[in-house]
TrEMBL record:
UniProt-listed SUPFAM superfamilies: Galactose-binding domain-like, Integrin alpha N-terminal domain
Highest taxon in the source lineage: Bacteria
Organism: Echinicola soli
InterPro entries (UniProt xref): Galactose-bd-like_sf, Ig-like_fold, Integrin_alpha_N, RGI_lyase, RGL11, RGL11_C
Rhamnogalacturonan I lyase beta-sheet domain boundaries: 47-130
Lineage: Bacteria, Pseudomonadati, Bacteroidota, Cytophagia, Cytophagales
Rhamnogalacturonan lyase family 11 C-terminal domain: residues covered: 159-613
PANTHER family: RHAMNOGALACTURONAN LYASE (EUROFUNG) (PTHR43118:SF1)
Signal peptide interval: none
Record protein name field: Uncharacterized protein
Length: 866
């Protein structure tokens, strides 16, 4: 039997860390055998970025809509509270969703969300409400809540005007909030782009001058935490004349000895030479950290498919995750003929090349000409590491060719679980080459599942689950009917120029066309509110990603005057509780490459309508409650930050069952249900019941005390509680039944060393049953009964010798009635005595309780026979 129980939360009770989610079983087809492989059994836990709750509040005509993140490391049961102006607005914890409608909220209010961790609650910072803004381009339309981010003044270079263009996102400073990194694209010319980082309030962190030897829309911006230190780096293609975010010319690697005034010849308008660099910048400051020669360099333009530099300038970058090496930065060149690429790890100081791939190398010839105008990333073979989906081919994480379909170049691609009843992921592609049309293939093996041939260039196509009437994705391509995931024609008439987006409350995707979003009907028209797209006829958004609120995606568009960014986030309630899409590895990696080449939407690595699967992930860059990145301090159950570098110990709860008290002169009983452990003690005035315990601690401290009792007497009762000779009165409220257990809560002060806690002198006509006493504090120990020293041990009477080997005598009363009990309340002697009586001569060795009745008063002592 455990007489004392100590409970203390560990670091996992805090916001962080190492909580696996549900698992999805993938199937890998081997020769003659189909072997189902549980990915998490072969893959180590995957690191993902730390994010805060991303709370947003949107004004509506009937209140305020609130939305916040569930993290990929949260348990399904995670609960939340919401506060308006410091006052909680929900009556019960919110556990079924991560959104809420506050009918009493106004645009003047501020809100915060409280996460109910097992180790204690954690509150976010306060956020203001996004106000309803009028449709100034069409005043008859309703106002819409959205956020306007003021942009820094654009660059000034001669008479060039600039527009905010391609954008990526990452946590640059490690605070759990996203910053935006975007290109200032020169209008009408192809050189002198700039790269700027801003926070979500429009404050500039830095600006990089890319220089005359880079090309707009081809900077290949990578924003990702390449060394897993909790802060994202920024990598991009650079050249002579590039200045970092501190205003300094690049100065490391080959840039340290170049001529920054040199301009690479562009006889056809495209660069026909080098050098071209790949540079990693500090995400927080924009400072150059390392520069290497871009692999591959251009060499002979004819190798890439033409003699004027067009196909040779098809450069792309990506980030893959390798479970042995961590993040890998990949640089590529070529689509139509020769294709080559190199891969690098980043150790915080150096770019280290780990592999190269070249279609001119023996064995790689069939991969030539298979590239896309975009790239995709994902673990398609189930080994825990990402592959590079490069059009009609796939490159394994080690730089070897995984497969090629031979279907050739294309513009669009979509990687996800298009066919949920089929194992693994599928890859949909629209092809440019004559004959091949559109194809759906097994992403891991390259097997063509179905295809529709065509002699036309398929310039627009997408595949996503947009219709609940069909299981899996719907496939839409220009010049083709719509198809279901199996390749069957369906009667829908979706527009091939749209792109899928999660925006309303159902589990299907909506369709973004330019600055507009459609579901079953038009949800909103961004143009009314000043929104404009980029990339001409492609009508791209600057960014579409789940960067705030719950799992729905935000759409970021430039204002037509190029002075603001407009952020549109959903105001539509949903019952779907889902972790942020940014903690789904496949989705996150395809946000990294969204703007590379032709912008493509990111998809999840699972069929969303079936619920979210488990990924073995953990967050890096998590600040503990003491503010230390990746620290081990945590909030204990008392709401104190302990452990790690705090120097503080966690609080604990010491439970002392009444029947196991070091001293007790009350009757044991177990007739009434609901008690803990073995039973309880009956305290009443008649028997002068008493309970005492000894608690040892290494420090003086205030502790929380809980006394669990039952009072079915129908009367209010009281008793004394004595702690270290300080007395206070306890009051026991009557209940309907002896099985209705209640709790008293109070705060007491412990002194360093041994502390004596007593409950005695029950007053009233009834009795109370005491179940246990709990004390919550730091470094508590219930000491051995031998150490206890009752304050009244020398009062009233003395039992001597105690312990005794023969008999006991009583000093203090001339005559008395006595009873000797064992600790199970069995009577061993019952009789009359005086100062000369020899008591307990027949007792066996052990612990006993002797009770004396003198003139109607009862007195008890604990005795030992040896």
């Amino acid at each position: 039997m455990n007489l004392f129980t100590i409970t203390a939360p560990g670091p996992g009770g805090g916001r962080g860390i190492l909580i696996p989610l549900r698992k999805k079983t993938l199937a890998i087809a081997w020769t003659f055998v189909v072997c189902f492989l549980n990915v998490s059994e072969v893959a180590a836990q995957r690191p993902m970025e730390f994010l805060d709750r991303g709370l947003i509040a949107l004004e509506k005509s009937d209140g305020v809509y609130l939305s916040w993140r569930m993290l990929g490391t949260d348990p399904d049961s995670i609960g939340f509270n919401l506060y308006r102006n410091g006052e909680k607005i929900n009556t019960e914890p919110i556990t079924e969703s991560t959104n809420y409608e506050d009918s009493e909220g106004t645009v003047e209010d501020v809100y915060k969300v409280e996460t109910l961790h097992s180790g204690g609650p954690e509150q976010s910072g306060e956020v203001e409400v996004w106000s309803l803004k009028p449709a100034y381009r069409n005043p008859g339309r309703p106002s819409l809540p959205h956020k306007k981010i003021p942009l820094p003044a654009p660059p000034v270079v001669d008479t060039i005007s600039y527009i905010p263009g391609d954008m990526s996102v990452g946590d640059l400073d490690g605070d759990g909030k996203y910053e935006l990194v975007f290109e200032w694209e020169p209008d009408g010319v192809s050189i002198n782009s700039f790269l700027e980082a801003i926070d979500l309030e429009g404050n500039s962190l830095w600006r990089i001058e890319c220089g005359p030897n880079t090309t707009k829309n081809k900077l290949n911006i990578m924003v990702y935490d390449l060394d897993m230190d909790g802060k994202a780096e920024v990598a991009l293609k650079t050249g002579p004349g590039t200045k970092d975010g501190t205003g300094t010319y690049l100065s490391t690697g080959p840039a340290g000895s170049d001529d920054d005034s040199y301009i690479i010849p562009r006889p056809s308008g495209r660069m026909m030479g080098g050098p071209t660099y790949l540079t990693v910048f500090n995400g927080a400051s924009g400072a150059e950290m390392a520069t290497v020669d871009y692999f591959p360099q251009i060499g002979d333009s004819n190798d890439w498919g033409d003699d004027y530099g067009h196909r040779a300038s098809s450069l792309k970058t990506a980030v893959l995750y390798d479970q042995a090496l961590g993040p890998i930065l990949v640089s590529t060149r070529g689509i139509y003929e020769k294709i080559a690429m190199g891969a690098y790890t980043w150790d915080g100081m150096n770019l280290n090349q780990v592999w190269t791939f070249d279609t001119n190398d023996p064995g790689n010839e069939d991969y030539a000409g298979q590239g896309n105008h975009s790239v995709g990333v994902g673990d398609v073979d189930g080994d825990g590491s990402d592959e590079l989906m490069y059009g009609a081919m796939a490159i394994d994480n080690d730089g070897t060719g995984l497969y090629t379909t031979g279907r050739g170049h294309g513009d669009s691609h979509h990687l996800t679980d298009h066919m949920p009843d089929r194992p693994g992921l599928e890859y949909f592609q629209g092809h440019e080459n004559d004959t091949y049309g559109i194809s759906m293939r097994d992403a891991g093996t390259g097997e063509i599942i179905w295809e529709v041939l065509s002699s036309s260039d398929v310039g627009r196509a997408w595949a996503a689950d947009a219709d609940p009437g069909y299981r899996g994705s719907e496939v839409v391509a220009i010049g083709f009917p719509n198809y279901d995931a199996q390749g069957n024609e369906i009667p829908t008439n979706y527009n091939a120029y749209n792109q899928p987006v999660y925006f309303d409350g159902d589990v299907q995707r909506e369709r973004r066309g330019g600055a507009n979003v459609n579901g079953d009907s038009r949800i909103f028209t961004g143009w009314y509110y000043g929104a404009s797209t980029i990339h001409g006829s492609k009508n791209d958004a600057n960014l579409v990603a789940d960067i705030l609120g719950d799992w729905r995606e935000e759409i970021i568009l430039r204002n037509g005057n190029n002075e603001e960014l407009l952020v549109f986030s959903t105001w539509i309630p949903t019952e779907r509780k889902n972790p942020t899409l940014m903690h789904d590895p496949l989705y996150r990696m395809n946000i990294v490459v969204q703007s590379i080449g032709y912008n493509q939407p990111a998809h999840t690595g699972y069929y969303f309508a079936d619920g979210y699967p488990e990924h073995d992930i953990y967050m890096v860059g998590v600040k503990d409650c003491n503010g230390v990145v990746d620290g081990t301090a945590y909030m204990d159950e008392c709401g104190t930050c302990v452990g790690g570098d705090t120097g503080l110990q966690p609080c604990m709860t010491l439970t002392m069952e009444s029947e196991a008290s070091c001293y007790k002169s009350a009757m044991f009983d177990d007739r009434f249900e609901g008690y803990s452990d073995q039973g309880y003690l009956i305290m009443d005035k008649k028997t002068n019941g008493k309970i005492a315990s000894s608690i040892n601690t290494s420090m003086s401290q205030e502790v929380e005390v809980t006394i669990r009792y039952a009072n079915g007497s129908g009367q209010y009762l009281s008793s004394d509680l004595i702690m270290n000779n300080s007395t206070r009165q306890l009051s026991y409220t009557p209940a309907a039944s002896w099985e209705d257990w209640q709790e008293l809560h109070l705060t007491l002060t412990l002194e360093e060393g041994e502390n004596i806690l007593e409950i005695k002198k029950m007053d009233g006509l009834g009795r109370a049953n005491i179940d246990f006493i709990q004390i919550t504090g730091v470094d508590l120990e219930a000491t051995d009964c031998k150490k206890i020293k009752l304050a009244e041990a020398e009062e009233d009477f003395v039992v001597y010798p105690n312990p005794a080997t023969d008999y006991f005598s009583i000093k203090g009363f001339k005559s008395y009635h006595y009873i000797i009990y064992d600790l199970n309340q069995n009577i061993h002697e019952d009789g009359e005595g005086n100062q000369n009586s020899k008591l307990g001569e027949q007792l066996s060795p052990g612990e006993y309780l002797i009770t004396l009745e003198v003139e109607g008063e009862n007195y008890s002592r604990r005795i030992r026979k040896e």
